[in-house]
Records
---
Amino acid sequence: MKNKVSARAHTNIALIKYWGKQDPDLIIPYNNSLSLTLEHFYTDTTVTFDDTLSEDTFFLNDQRINDKKVVHFLDIVRDKAQKNVFAKVESTNHVPTSAGLASSASAYAALALAASSAIGLQLTKRELSRLARRGSGSASRSIFGGLVEWEKGHNDEDSFAVPIEENVTWDIQMIAIMINSHEKEIDSRSGMQHSVDTSPFYHDWVKTTEQDLIDMKDAISKRDLAKVGQIAENNAMKMHATTLSANPSFTYFNPDSIRAMDAVKNLRKSGITCYFTMDAGPNVKIICSKAETPYILNKLSPLFGADNLLVAKPGPGATII
Ligand code: PMV
């Protein structure tokens, strides 16, 4: 057997964050999350299952990488297909180099689609979302375009993402402020586990996020950008509060992240509808309208450099290419 398939998946940024797993092996989260898939950042992955291979190989941006997580993911695919054949995986991340946005979301969504198709499985989008989840939780959402909710469920069968609005036609987009980090970041996997294990605020994070999700869906249905931004910003800061309150504490903020968040607040004071969110890294993402984006870019360019500001509009779900 030799079968080759290529797929593309876009990354997503959560407006309601996923942070913490009930089941670390199956990646079942403690709370539902909700994200916007972005057009600007994506991963292309080609998977070739080939009888003549004696091991799995993985190339990222043309460089051979030893990644146990990729092999583990291929094991799950082989197990589902009941086939014992190794694969060559070739991925290209279409994100600006060193952007720190090279998200596992686009990576595992593209890998789930390419690998399952190449091995001969014909999965529904829901099944693909479940499969992508096994690689990285946020990848479950990147199977779909636009605004997407990951329903936490309780087990492998009922934990998957569903589209809320695949084709976003109202005025919402993001600007990512690229911030360089000199320190090695704590990956999301170990960061969230440490928050679950040691933050006294973790329970309140889960509890209040349930209401955030209800309010967020209401704001989305009303196309209320200010409300969407407010809830997203507050939700993100509550997530980060579980890192600051972990023991020992840690943070993804660096001085420039704080500078960026202040700049967004200042723009807001001057009447611009813009809010920020942050993930497991120092970059700050602004939630804003397309209409006000030029003004925001103009104000932020002198502070962060025009090249470090990347505009991303809503993007599509994973596709075979
Ligand atoms: O999917 P992971 O394991 O990379 O975790 C993603 C965690 C956050 O990006 C911080 C939040 C989210 O919901 O995407």
---
Amino acid sequence: MKKPNVVILGAGYGGLMTTVRLQKMVGVNEANITLVNKNDYHYESTWLHEASAGTLHHDRVRYPIADVIDRSKVNFVKDTVVKVVPEENRVILENGELTYDYLVVALGFESETFGIKGLKEYAFSIANVNAARQIREHIEYQFATYNTEEEKRDERLTIVVGGAGFTGIEFLGELVNRVPELCREYDVDPHKVRIICVEAAPTALPGFDPELVEYAVNLLERKGVEFKIGTAIKECTPEGIIVAKGDEVEEIKAGTVVWAAGVRGSHVIDESGFEAMRGRVKVDPFLRAPGYENVFIVGDCSLIINEETNRPYPPTAQIAMQQGEVCAKNLAVLIRQQGELQPFKPDIKGTVCSLGHDDAIGVVFGKKVWGSKASFMKKMVDNRALYLIGGPSLVMKKGKFNFL
Ligand code: FAD
């Protein structure tokens, strides 16, 4: 019998989890497994705010894909996916083409700017390792340049963060620790630095427990963050941003604008003609794209409805990894033509939002946590993700053990 070709696109949480689980389940002679990713490394997207602020080196947030795949079973292709042609079971890459019997699309998230003028051109977004490195370098450049100019431009030292959601708050938590270091390093008066967070919703961290939100906002304000809640970014310009609260319009001059208020699924989803909302496909209970029984979609490119609230689950690494496990099981069923497909049901264990390396807030197994206890849990969550993909050796290499 011909060995089926299984092609997995993307080596983020969803794609890599699918790959490492599948390589354990099937033998060399049962399937040809190909994993495609644009880099030869995997990065922990959930740590990118640290690399962006410069509190964690970017090499700490990534590891070689070769370290976790079994090369006797998985063929790794370093390339960029251009589009999928699902009617012909083909994937078009920048440098070639692949055909498949079963496909997993796990190409993750991209920044969503909702058409706000100038954001794409002038704002940064915490999207991947390259973007994180650029944000860190850009902020450092502003501090390094400040004292070299005869006429000091204080706005160089203003950093605007668009969005007080999960990513925005985690990034602010790192920034407030990084800025004092930068001030010392470049002889900058800390009073000249402004960190402003602009959020259109009526609260920071919409949907989070209000007591925990208050804890986070108070802590960040104490460390110098100015919140502009209920305020929308109308435009981003080379000089900063224009915001509006009701009828009041204000220009904020800033050397750095980081947009952290929206993500969408990969543009490849739209290019490939899948029915989607902002690059996210509403998958069937077995994680398949409607109309294509051999195409699975996991992670941020998929959309799953929470039946209790009748709203989509927010895209998270937690869900992407759980989907990867189920997807691998379902692929094994199809490869062997034995057994039954398993429906996917998210098992949400909790959410922890970091506020720098030593503080956090969260709800874990239904209990509220904050402070150093929450921070400890956050590191445990981060280490667990490493463990699930690469076992204890990956945790030893890349894990977070600075618990104090
Ligand atoms: P990703 O992890 O984004 O991986 C996609 C992979 O595909 C990447 O390797 C990428 O290089 C590759 N790729 C993309 N396009 C192409 C292409 N065209 N060709 C080839 N390869 C391509 N979630 C949580 O659960 N908890 C958290 O605490 C948390 N914190 C976060 C903090 C930050 C700063 C951010 C940005 C996100 C956070 N998230 C968190 C969300 C989480 O990171 C995402 O939900 C998760 O990464 C989605 O996993 P994925 O497998 O779908 O995609």
